[in-house]
Structure formats: C-alpha cells, structure tokens
Amino acid sequence: MRDALDNPFSPGSDTVPDVWAGRTEQLSDWRDVVRPRRLAGLPERGRTILGEPGLGKSTLVRRIAQEASRAGDWVTPQLRVPAGADPLKLVAEAVLALAADAGLSSSREKRIGDAIARVQAVAVSGISLTLRGADGREPFTALTALLVEVGLAAIADGRVMALIHIDEVQNITDEKALSQLLIALGDALTHEVEVSVPGGARVSRSLPIAVYLTGLPDFEDMAGARMGATFARRFKTTTLSAIDEEDLAEALQEFVLEGWAVSDDAGGSARVRMTPDAAALIIDVCRGEPFLFQLAGEQSWYAASTATITADQVRRGWQGAQREATAHVERILERLPARERQLLQAMSELPAPERTATRIAEAMGLSKVTELGPTAQRLDTVRGIIDRGKPYTFRHRAVEAYLTSDWPRV
User: Fold this and answer.
1) Considering 213, 239, 265, which residue would you say is the last residue of a domain?
2) What residue ranges in 114-268 does DSSP mark as E strands?
3) In 3-state terms, what secondary structure has residue 193?
C-alpha cells in the first residue's frame, strides 16, 4: 500500500511537497499584500527570503509561484544562480520568456523590438557586454526596459502580473553583476507609468511586477555593502526560522483523522493513517526543520507497507535517516565563522537559565562582555540561530539539539 509512487513527503528536492507545514505568514503576505497591491498599481517592495539550509526558502517561493501560475500570472522558473555564473545572462533569458508570455515577441513596435534585441544580446554576453547602441546604455538598463514593457502588457491585460524568482543569490560574488541586477529589478519595481482612469483623468501607477530573491543569510550583508539604503528601500527581507510544532501537527492532522488517500493494489483507493504518537515523534525528531520534517516523514513511510504508520515505524525510519540529519546540521555549523561557532558551543555548555551574555563571554574567554556583541548580533538578526533575550535562547532547534543532547538519536 505504501510505496515510492504514493509517498507524499519530499525532502530536499525543491519541489512543493504534498504535506505542507507552516509559513502561513509569508504565503499570506503574497496573497493579501504583494499581489493585490501590485495588481492595483500600488508600490510594494520586492521580497528577499533568507535562511540557513533546510528551512525551505526555495520551496516556499516555488509554492508562491505555483499559486501565481494557477491565477494566470506570468511566472519565471526558479532561477538558481550557480557559483561563479553570470546572473544577468540567467535573468535576461527569463525576461525574454516573460516577454513571450506577454505576447511582446510578435509586436511590430520598434520600441519593443529594440528592447527585445538588446536583452537578447545580454542573454548571450551578460555582464561582459558593452552595448554600443546609440544611447550607449549598459546591460541592466536593457533588462529594466524590457521588464517595463512586460509590466505594460500586464496592465493592458488587467488581470495578471509578472513574478520573478531568483534563487541562491549569495552565489553572486561579482560586485558589478550584483549591483546591475539589483538596480535593474529595483528600477522595474519602482517604475511608474501614467494610465487613464474613468472620467478621462491620468494617474500614475506602479507596474504589476513582483520579485522574490532567496538565499543564505550572508546575502543581506553582501547586498547592503553594495547597495546600502537603496536595497532596503526596494526589498523587504525576511529571515526564516524553525516551524512551530503546532503548524507541524496541523500538517499531519489529515493522516491522524482521515488518513492520506493512496491507490490500493486492486486499482481502487485506500487511506494511510498515522497514530497520534507517531505524528508526535515525527514532530519531535525534526525540530522544526522543514527538510528534516520531510525526511522523517519519507523514512517513516518506507519503514513498512501497512495501512497505519506507527511510532515504532517512525523510530525505525528515523534511525536510517540519522546520518543525513547529522550531516545537515554539521553543514550549517561548518559554514559559520570560528567566533560564531565558539559562541554557540559556549552557549550550549551552559545550563539554559545561565545563558546570559556575561556568562557566555566568560566561557569564551573574552575580557569584556561588549566583545560578544557583534558575534551575537549576527547569530540573531542575520542568521536567526539564536535569540538575544535574557537569557539567550536557541531559535534553530536542530542546532540546539545537536549541541546539547544525543539528537538525532531516538
């Protein structure tokens, strides 16, 4: 009854899993703020979704893009930026596809034809291109011009908008390429055009274009250093943290109450149920990590073929996933600077009530508690791994469990 073809859990594949948990705030932001405001011509910043690996950044925006596509919007695929790649070429190709969706490629207007031709040149040469046209503009201006034309076509349609998703943005290490890309996207987001309204009046409105950037927390520092206040004005940044246990329980409630619908061996349908203690154990071992939640569910599904997932099956499935769970958290810790790892280690060795700035600084061998400040601030506001309360606490529960207990053993 339970096999690979009907497994509803999808760890680490960047696909939108059938069993969805949490992120209601970010989904509501798209449905209730970003899309309606941009469609109405009101200004609204782009969104930057950052977080440590495994928190579901890309999957979240893929779900937003999925909803946008179902609503008829023009949506780019997930534009994943490989390390060392030219982001302008990648985005230029996607903007050309948006222009095709908008019907611009068949336009006979010279203005549109010129904009498409210039972006086609960017798609070939990227940041290395020096355009020698009559106006001598750089590649980012060509992207902006074509995005404006896409936005105008969306206004003419009246029901759709364009959604751009760029992933792994921390891989854009070329300062000029990053600056040009952010300026092109930001200029399109802030561009206003005049339109006619009932009664014959002319008013200004923003274009129905939305931009989502996803990546590791380091990107905010990179973008801030190169763009300063301009980046903050044009993009709103959210740093994801672990999912609440209540949201995880809600995601598994269908298994517990009604069962998950699957095909049976006779060509009909059946339901796979989950005992309450099995659901509780999945929630416990994943520690709020979307990747580990999907991993625990996947391995529990494969642990047997019966119609009910039991706590014993969850335990056996998780035992097979412990090495991957360990490697997942170790990768997060290994990419941190030495001082940040030292702070986390010192914090983990103190009893929870004694995790104050003073005690942590003493454990690290610092002469002054003020020396702790910059490191603790980065782990809190940039990475979302700790919370600098009184006392300090861990927000990344998998990191806490790894450093302070036998987890991931069960």
Assistant:
1) 239
2) 162-167, 192-196, 202-206, 209-215, 235-239, 260-263
3) strand
pLDDT in tens, 283-325: 999 999 999 999 999 999 999 999 999 999 999 999 999 999 9
Q: How far apart are CA 192 and CA 42, in angstroms?
A: 10
* Number of other residues whose CB lies within 10 A of the CB of residue 115: 25
Distance between CA atoms of residues 27 and 173, nearest Å: 29
- Tokens (6 digits) for 124: 């070939």
Q: Which residues, other chains included, contact 178 with Cβ-Cβ below 8 Å and sequence gap of 6+? A: 87, 172, 222, 223, 226
Tokens of 229: 């206040």
> If you search the block for the tokens 């905010």, which residue do you land on?
220
φ/ψ of residue 288, rounded to 5: 80, 5
Q: What residue type is assigned to position 29 of the chain?
A: D
Instruction: Confirm whether 178 is domain-assigned.
Output: yes
Residues 82 and 137 in one domain: yes
Contact, 150 vs 209, CB < 8 A? yes
Contact 309, 299 (CB under 8 A): no
Sequence-ordered list of residues with C-beta below 8 angstroms from that of 187, at least 6 positions apart, any chain: 140, 144
* pLDDT tens digits, one per residue of 26-76: 999 999 999 999 999 999 999 999 999 999 999 999 999 999 999 999 999
Cross-strand partners of 204 = 194
Alpha helices for 42-134 (secondary structure H): 57-70, 87-101, 110-125
Overall residue count recorded for the chain in this entry: 410
Other CB atoms within 10 A of residue 211 CB? 24
Please check whether residue 81 is in contact with residue 167, taking contact to mean a CB–CB distance below 8 angstroms: yes
Rounded-to-integer distance, Cα 228 and Cα 237, Å: 14
Task: Give the torsion sign (CA, 211, 213, 219, 220).
Answer: positive
Q: Distance between CA atoms of 97 and 78, rounded to whole angstroms?
A: 13
Contact of 357 with 372, CB cutoff 8 Å: yes
Domain count, the chain: 3
Write the Ramachandran bin of 324: left for phi over 0, alpha for psi from -120 to 50, otherwise beta.
Answer: alpha
**Beta carbons of 262 and 6 less than 8 angstroms apart:** yes
In a domain, 89, yes or no: yes
The last residue of a domain, from among 205, 224, 239? 239
